[in-house]
Specification:
131 residues; mainly alpha; elongated; Homeobox_CS; nucleus; homeobox
């Protein structure tokens, strides 16, 4: 039994030490509209910045190098997500277009289908169902 108590106490001490050792995170930076506009403008033609470019932008906009680095990393990740979503949308549209085309072809076949005697043509109603 003494080992079990030691284990529990030891576990609690580890937990307490871990909480105390945690660093307080820096609060989220709220960029101004002007800063975002300038960062987006630069991102349009330059996805990656050299250290000199980072220094220049950080100085112009009153940001730290780390903030500029993080903003560009996050913006590249957002671009990647947006491109993947767009790709899925295009694929989905292709499938829907193919399905619609198939249904139209089936409907056309129903309209043109003749009875075995060859004299009567079947006509489809407004929903594409032969009558």
């Amino acid at each position: 039994m003494p080992t079990k108590r030691y284990g529990q106490a030891n576990h609690l001490n580890l937990f307490n030490n871990r909480q105390q050792a945690k660093k307080k995170r820096k609060s989220r930076t709220a960029f101004t509209n002007h800063q975002i506009f300038e960062l987006e403008k630069r991102f349009l033609y330059q996805k990656y910045l050299s250290p000199a470019d980072r220094d220049e932008i950080a100085g112009q906009l009153g940001l730290t190098n780390a903030q500029v680095i993080t903003w560009f990393q996050n913006r590249r990740a957002k671009l990647k997500r947006d491109m993947e979503e767009l790709k899925k949308d295009v694929e989905s549209t292709k499938i829907l277009t193919a399905h619609k085309s198939f249904l139209e072809n089936v409907q056309d076949l129903g309209i043109l289908k003749k009875k075995s005697s060859g004299a009567t043509v079947m006509v489809a109603d407004d929903k594409g169902v032969p009558t």
